């Protein structure tokens, strides 16, 4: 009866459709994405969609007639390539897919409006997909162990499955659930599919500690072998997806009831839409772009020609929430390359995924990976405290339009390009303000759609020269004026996010304080009144910070092995310094720096 009702609902289009949007209300970028998506072949059969990880390799004798399973979604918010979900389907006669709001799950402890919305849409998408096969997503509030105890008692649950959350911050939660299962004699299956390799396996192959350099990491994983290929969409036909009579009390709560307030009115103008459906569509577009780039003789178009204003093409928020399987990403790129039989190595692209793996693995067993103190891979640097400057940086009021535009985009849209992250992180730390990377990290955690606890911290440590860099021998820090000019040559990006500067001539746009008063008046923007004066003088700050770094180096007695991996190539790769910008000019680190002559 219920199923019939649901089918009717589905046919009459009553279901929430997260991907349908009012085109008129969409900003231009969004319309571009929609157009790109229309070009995507919807029925594409992925080469990689063949199941090669037979979920646990269980045979029939393992099947229990009365297995009542719960699949616990946390990250891994997808149905495709979800081995623990497949295990639940294969083993259970009855299955309840659930999500528990415990105040921390999927990074909700520090989480701004955009990421909440993205998470919510990802959950809605799962619920909608489950509806299509006769099920629903159940949601709960509170401590997972309390919820599971209740489910064991009231619903007779005897199997719990979930995807491994590899970062140490989730360990206590997951260990508690595993202990509970053991105590209650409940089967518990945890599968590795958020990462290409199991960070614990990499660590144990390396003698019990994470490989400290990127090169070592690559060596260790090469001994494990290639990542598993992804599995496809699950087949729910063998399992009953029950919907209890009082389901309403478990349905996804209304967004307004759980989400924080918008931090900026422009967040209404939504650019990123969460969920597996969207992830898979964007992925197809991305693969086509990469294939076109391969054919044209290069790869990573968004790195080669950074498009700061382009439509959302990044998959990092989808990888972060697990709406897209990282194994699908990895293998599809490799297969596309093989199909094209091109001489360009796809490893440039998949190298980015390896950085992701590396940071996840580096944080294994290190609960202090997100701070300087108590974190043995992080160099102790004597950062300054300056709440006022930190606040100005956070709000995009530093007086450097390139930096401010990046920070405004972060707050409004939730995703900023790698070069923008690089610019603002360098400016806050070793470049200009000499403020601790931990302060910047907190801001990124709150606003970034793709904020991962360990990846974000790892990147901040790198950029602030706190780890992963040649010991504090960072290249000259990026100049907030030159870097901006190179990345935003027409000033379109800055004008978009700082409308107060919309009429400032390009010549002064990146350093408007240099504009003569008459020019400022004509542009309708008086510096110091309508737009701030710079909060630091870059040249002087960069020079003094460099001296502080030199003093720090001198005070270090030991060599730090984790600080010596980077060579020129690795730094370029990490910094995403394109060889050319828009196919024209050569772009070197020096071009983007204030040459201090030291
Ligand atoms: P692609 O070129 O498509 O790369 C593919 C995937 O590889 C990305 O989606 C991402 O999952 C991964 N990746 C790419 N670059 C890196 C990198 N440097 N480190 C680790 N993984 C990488 N990325 C996050 O996913 N989460 C974060 O919290 C995060 N915080 C960052 C903080 C700072 C200060 C900086 C400088 C970078 C940070 N990055 C983070 C890395 C990077 O900026 C984004 O992953 C990237 O911009 C995503 O764009 P893309 O999807 O087009 O990348
Ligand atoms: Mg991506």
Automatic annotation (TrEMBL):
<comment type="similarity">
    <text>Belongs to the DNA photolyase class-1 family.</text>
</comment>
<feature type="domain" description="Photolyase/cryptochrome alpha/beta">
    <location>
        <begin position="67"/>
        <end position="196"/>
    </location>
</feature>
<feature type="binding site">
    <location>
        <begin position="450"/>
        <end position="452"/>
    </location>
    <ligand>
        <name>FAD</name>
    </ligand>
</feature>
<dbReference type="Pfam" id="PF03441">
    <property type="entry name" value="FAD_binding_7"/>
</dbReference>
<dbReference type="GO" id="GO:0032922">
    <property type="term" value="P:circadian regulation of gene expression"/>
</dbReference>
<keyword id="KW-0274">FAD</keyword>
<keyword id="KW-0675">Receptor</keyword>
<dbReference type="InterPro" id="IPR005101">
    <property type="entry name" value="Cryptochr/Photolyase_FAD-bd"/>
</dbReference>
<feature type="site" description="Electron transfer via tryptophanyl radical">
    <location>
        <position position="460"/>
    </location>
</feature>
<dbReference type="GO" id="GO:0043153">
    <property type="term" value="P:entrainment of circadian clock by photoperiod"/>
</dbReference>
<feature type="binding site">
    <location>
        <begin position="352"/>
        <end position="359"/>
    </location>
    <ligand>
        <name>FAD</name>
    </ligand>
</feature>
<dbReference type="InterPro" id="IPR002081">
    <property type="entry name" value="Cryptochrome/DNA_photolyase_1"/>
</dbReference>
<feature type="compositionally biased region" description="Basic and acidic residues">
    <location>
        <begin position="32"/>
        <end position="47"/>
    </location>
</feature>
<dbReference type="GO" id="GO:0003677">
    <property type="term" value="F:DNA binding"/>
</dbReference>
<keyword id="KW-0539">Nucleus</keyword>
<keyword id="KW-0547">Nucleotide-binding</keyword>
<feature type="region of interest" description="Disordered">
    <location>
        <begin position="1"/>
        <end position="60"/>
    </location>
</feature>
<dbReference type="GO" id="GO:0048471">
    <property type="term" value="C:perinuclear region of cytoplasm"/>
</dbReference>
<dbReference type="GO" id="GO:0045892">
    <property type="term" value="P:negative regulation of DNA-templated transcription"/>
</dbReference>
<protein>
    <recommendedName>
        <fullName>Cryptochrome-1</fullName>
    </recommendedName>
</protein>
<feature type="site" description="Electron transfer via tryptophanyl radical">
    <location>
        <position position="437"/>
    </location>
</feature>
<dbReference type="InterPro" id="IPR036134">
    <property type="entry name" value="Crypto/Photolyase_FAD-like_sf"/>
</dbReference>
<dbReference type="InterPro" id="IPR006050">
    <property type="entry name" value="DNA_photolyase_N"/>
</dbReference>
<dbReference type="InterPro" id="IPR014729">
    <property type="entry name" value="Rossmann-like_a/b/a_fold"/>
</dbReference>
<keyword id="KW-0285">Flavoprotein</keyword>
<dbReference type="GO" id="GO:0005634">
    <property type="term" value="C:nucleus"/>
</dbReference>
<feature type="compositionally biased region" description="Polar residues">
    <location>
        <begin position="10"/>
        <end position="19"/>
    </location>
</feature>
<feature type="site" description="Electron transfer via tryptophanyl radical">
    <location>
        <position position="383"/>
    </location>
</feature>
<dbReference type="GO" id="GO:0071949">
    <property type="term" value="F:FAD binding"/>
</dbReference>
<keyword id="KW-0963">Cytoplasm</keyword>
<dbReference type="Pfam" id="PF00875">
    <property type="entry name" value="DNA_photolyase"/>
</dbReference>
<dbReference type="InterPro" id="IPR036155">
    <property type="entry name" value="Crypto/Photolyase_N_sf"/>
</dbReference>
